[in-house]
Amino acid sequence: MLNDILDFVPEIPVAEWVETVTDTITDWFAFLFDPVKEHFGSFMEWSSEMLMQVPAVIIILIVAVLAFFLSGKKIGLAAFSIVGLWFIYNQGYWEHLMSTFTLVLIASLLSVIIGVPFGILMSKSKTAEAIITPILDFMQTMPAFVYLIPAVAFFGIGMVPGVFASLIFATPPTVRFTNLGIRQVSKELVEASDAFGSTGSQKLFKVELPMAKATIMAGINQTVMLSLSMVVIASMIGAPGLGREVLSSLQRAQVGTGFVAGVGIVILAIVIDRFTQTVNSKKD
Amino acid sequence: MPVIEAKGLSKIFGRNPKQTTKLLDEGLSKEEILKKTGNTVGVNRATFEVEEGEIFVIMGLSGSGKSTLVRLINRLIEPTEGSIMIDGEDLASMDKESLRKVRREKLSMVFQRFALFPHRTVLENAEFGLEIQNVAKEEREKKAKESLEMVGLGEYFHQKPGQLSGGMQQRVGLARALANDPEVLLMDEAFSALDPLIRKDMQDELIDLQSSMKKTIVFITHDLDEALRIGDRIALMKDGSIVQVGTPEDILVNPANDYVEKFVEDVDRSKVLVAQNIMKRPEYVNIDKHGPRVALERMREEGLSSILVIDSKRNLKGYVIAEDASEARKKEVRDLNNILRTDIERVSKDTPLNDIFNVIHDSPVPVAVVENEKLAGIIVRGAVLAALAGDGEVNLEDA
């Protein structure tokens, strides 16, 4: 057979290797993962509990007022927020909404905190860019379900592995856009800052980051949206929230509940998206 | 001691630049080196000095390496070879910390497209250089305001650069550079992006500022008119090499080679050349010693129809024409005073060609060039036309 040529090496046990590596990591880093699982998990639960304690009316009002001022005293976004959030409350999904919001907020914050420095590193070094770019491609194209498995191995089930999965999935845009934003700063401005004798950090904080702000914010907006889209997938490993409702409706073939929970996610997405965008386009 | 002193300063872009410099030694041209190695010669062995308080213009067409050269001066581009001394310190071999110090204290740069920070106000832009040096807020604001007022932007402190016109933006760029109180101002095609009228204003203002502040200025331009207007000395660049360094007159009048000649061909020479450049050694007679007979003799020898008359102190008295002289000789008149004509046009040594042209047009005899009433030379009509045409014999003996 012609295919014999291809069989000159027996099957490489990549799957076993990965498993061994994952097991080893789980064992070795248990001292790290366990406290994270415990403390970070309880912190997240506490945060969403706190949010749930606040009366829904107050949260809706705060969101509406913020929307009104952020969008330059226009009524549209505020009105949409009031109607949308009220609808979720009306459908009995308020607590799920709070869990989802906590998850998205914390996951995005972590993504940004991790992503921006890596983006800066990439923009400053060609080597770093050459190394990080394929990793980012890998993170974004690997089906999200695949890294749910080690997430569970490391952190058990619940919100923490959800955040972990979301980090992997949602951080790349922030890294990429930060890199892009800094590289796009006009050469003359960089020269000007050098010519006046800036140090590297003065250049970064006084010129490059302010100039790249709009691009970085666009990346952050993408990151927030992606971590919101992870909510449904993360519910498969026990992350609470609207995603879990979608999942259980799927398992029970309940079209109605599935649709309503889905609409809830869409409303949250629109509100968050408009918020992050208006912060970006706001003239300073 | 010169403020800036460049010696054999070279920049090669591409791989193995050090090896390419050997090809420069062998005298290969920029094109040959590009073909052979794929490397581009940015600057080829530039050697020049800039004296304190002068405006040194580096001029060349695009691609001649002038922008690279100015960036070698503050090491925004790393030189491949050579040294660049600022106040006797070699920038090329300096560590980063000292380089930063020199950039902060001695060199400021003004950019072609202004390079203002759009997220900062005009005042904050002007403060930038001082802010980087961690100067206290109050002090740097005061200095920035002073330099903005100096360039006439006293009322725009809190605008963003984007709200200003091009000319005003470049004033901000200039103010930003001046706020540091640097010794040397590097201006990279600073006025090239401005429209012609504003450009002229800015040139005049720069000359004014220069005469009051006595900064040393290195000015890059591709515009010969601009170079001639503001430059004390001009360095002409071609293919990365400096082809000629000299005063504006040197360059116009004695172009070092065909390239320079071609470059200056289009210049309106009437604005640049002055009487001194085209005058000739005058033929004259001395009124205290000579009579009509000598005058006539001289005119015959030189083939002239008239001759200038001076006294023993070389003061110009006027002229006599051949007809009058021969009549006087017949009548045995001895004194030139009887036939002296005084309606001669006088210009001084530094009268521009432009003005001479108007004078000589109406004058029957050559125009006299005088300095403190003393005769210095004459200008004949033909010399003016020849100079305007660009091929006249021109002298610089007294320059």
UniProtKB/TrEMBL annotation, chain A:
Membrane topology: Multi-pass membrane protein
Keyword line: Amino-acid transport, Cell membrane, Membrane, Transmembrane, Transmembrane helix, Transport
Main location: membrane
Protein name: Glycine betaine/proline transport system substrate-binding protein
CDD domains: TM_PBP2 (cd06261)
Protein's GO biological process: amino acid transport; choline transport; glycine betaine transport
Family the UniProt entry places it in: Belongs to the binding-protein-dependent transport system permease family. CysTW subfamily.
Entries under InterPro entries matching the protein: MetI-like (IPR000515), MetI-like_sf (IPR035906)
Record flagged with keyword Protein biosynthesis: no
Ranges where the ABC transmembrane type-1 domain occurs: 97-276
SUPFAM superfamilies noted in UniProt: MetI-like
Transmembrane segments: 50-70, 77-94, 100-123, 144-170, 224-243, 255-272
GO cellular component assignments: ATP-binding cassette (ABC) transporter complex
Any Pfam family the entry gives: BPD_transp_1
Molecular function terms from GO: amine transmembrane transporter activity; carnitine transmembrane transporter activity
Subcellular localization(s) per the UniProt record: Cell membrane
Domain of life of the organism encoding this protein: Bacteria
Automatic annotation (TrEMBL), chain B:
Catalysed reactions, semicolon-separated: a quaternary ammonium(out) + ATP + H2O = a quaternary ammonium(in) + ADP + phosphate + H(+)
Compartments, as annotated in UniProt: Cell inner membrane
Domain called ABC transporter: residue spans: 28-264
Keyword Translocase: no
CBS domain boundaries: 278-336
SMART domains recorded: AAA, CBS
GO cellular component: plasma membrane
GO molecular function annotation: ABC-type quaternary ammonium compound transporting activity; ATP binding; ATP hydrolysis activity
NCBIfam families xrefs: proV
Sequence similarity: Belongs to the ABC transporter superfamily.
UniProt name for this protein: Quaternary amine transport ATP-binding protein
